[in-house]
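Exam prep: given the inputs below (a chain plus (S)-3-Hydroxyhexanoyl-CoA), describe the expected output before reading on.
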Amino acid sequence: MATILEEERQTAQGAPVRMEIRDGLAVVTLNDPARPVNVISEGMLREMGEILERLENGEGGVRAAVIVSAKKGTWIAGADIEEFKNFAAPADAEAASRAGQEMLDRLEQLRIPVVAAIDGAALGGGLETALACTYRIATDSPKTKLGLPEVQLGIIPGAGGTARLPRLIGLRAALDLMLTGKQLDARRAMKAGIVDEVVPQTVLLEVASRQAMALAAKKLQPRAARRSGSPERLENLLPMRKLIFSKARQGVMEKTHGLYPAPLRLLKVIEAGLDKDVRAAQEMEARAFGELAVTPEARSLVHVFFTSTEAKNDVGLGDDVKPKSVDQIAVVGAGFMGAGIAAASAENGIRVRLKDVKPEAAAKGLRTARESLIKRAKRKKMRRFEVTKLVDRVQPTTEYSGFHASDVVVEAVFEDLSLKHRVIKEIEEHAGEGVVLGSNTSTIPITKLAEASARPDHVIGLHFFSPVEKMPLVEIITHEGTADWVTATAHAYAKKIGKTPIVVHDSPGFYVNRILSPYMAEAALLLQEGVRMEELDRAMTEWGFPVGPVTLYDEVGLDVAQKAGKIMAEAFADRMGNPPTVIDKMVADGRLGRKNSKGFYTFGEDGKKQGPDEAVYALIGNPPKKETPRAELQERLGLIMVNEAVRTLEEGVLRSARDGDVGAVFGIGFPPFRGGPFWYVDVTGAQTVLDRLRALEQRFGARYRPAKLLEEMARDGRKFFPDAA
Ligand code: 3H9
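Solution:
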């Protein structure tokens, strides 16, 4: 009969860490009652310290241990990012890193084997905990993901990850994980050599317990003992190692223009630590962690983490407003966007009817959606029957059959008001009473679309960004009459398919295009003034945007940009002035950008962007002049967007500065290390931004007129975010 030594010193019910000992096996269960996920907080460290002491003392004749989580969806989500806000100086953060390292060193040095039984996210300090265990078993649940995403927070792994991961899986693979922050599901983690076994959720504890005892009985060898020598022997040759680091550094510089200190510091720490023992490598890790954690870049990235998580979890309506569950949708318009929406939905378990008028168009959309799904399925190493089940979720149609069972219908037809009106009427004839009618328009006011509807309170904007599979934002646009449950359902649907939604009020350009538009118009004006195309692009990529505005014109399509630009110029004629003529000239010359391989840039046969097309300057009618200082270009383009963002908050288009930062970072690629336009104002100082805008207004006129709200913030010394440094 098994003896159960239930934790005597266990604190009150619901302690963050509990230990149960049964037949020589300790099951350590993590379940922080105060937090939605398990995190390595000060409290958790204390609790773990006590458990470790008891294991070190061999309490209850323990021969092996298993660490499990009782939280659904997470094993350990890493260090407590909330606590980062308390780091006033590098020494504070360094101390936190050392505390994490010490705890995991003790875990690693236990005389008994410890099995990490991972179900749910094991990220950052979570994965570092697993790395300090003897053996790792992970479940095949879609929630199980392993990674070291610290660089995305402007820091590096600080609890031994930079030392342990390269030693476990080899340098190149470890660098790839740490520099990108990518998260692997269990199967990929096993292939990478991080995880020893993958099992279904239902048997996790059983298998982990068995393997822990097998390790104790030496019937099973831990990975380190199973492999001979280092993971990748070639990588240990000095010239090879030098090459790997130099390539990695080059890759980082190309991607970040040196604007993010963490990845560069990460490379230094790993390079210097590889020949040292783990303890010495951790010394360097702790110091770097400390210095990085208090940089403005890290503070901004932490801000982006919290604001985006909040936007995802907060629809901004009372608790009594309940969303409808979304299990089946229909998409009307099987073009690139429609197919992307269908694929993103199917990937997340939603059945989709994809409709177009002609069979060829529906078939093409289906092909696009399937290709995207198969690509992702391959990456996830899905089995064949799983892939079949996945792609079968999208069914093409030329009729409205099956629409009655849809919870949401997304219309993604051409940007033509009368066409959309007709489509809305048709949808309403065939869909059920309780359907949410979402429009993926990027330019037409939702209020106008709702005019054609018999149930205007069901109509809402669901603005996806292209390409849907990559872009994380969905702008949800409400008009005056949109019912709250419709907003809540649209929000829940966006969240279900893994997107980050922001809810904005109907207005020309909504939020994202509203702030993008003056920026793009200013870029066109700068071209007319004689600034070279590549100069403009370089200025803004060096400011931190993923692509510059001229490249963006080509990517978006010049005809699309022309149409959007006209709408915005009309809507804000009082201060926008005359729209730049260059875009009209480009379109008249048949230059539509990437889609017809003819734009500001030239494109190769393979569709790859090449250099700027010099013929464009003749078209503009103004040859390039001497270089404009890069800082001036950045000031003109950056501030016009920031000012417009503040206006949208002032006008109530945005509900909060938080949503404004999330929308700009996730919808446009506003430099994440600047935290978004509102965080940027706070960090720069509202008064400074105001002064700079006033100077620009003097030179260039009303389009730089500062937002009233900005004037108020400067006058009252207020901030959008009180914790902005
Ligand atoms: C690190 O580990 C450094 C170490 O190397 C060094 C140690 C010394 N901290 O996203 P959700 C909150 S750096 C604090 O909606 P999901 C989140 O704010 C860390 N809070 O759930 C939200 O709160 P609320 C590296 C956290 O199921 C709630 O939990 N780790 C943390 O969609 C639910 O979150 C990461 O970067 C945290 N670490 O996704 C992982 N994590 O309900 C960050 C979550 O009040 N986390 N919260 O709005 C994630 O990626 C996702 O939250 C996760 C769950 C996948 C875990």
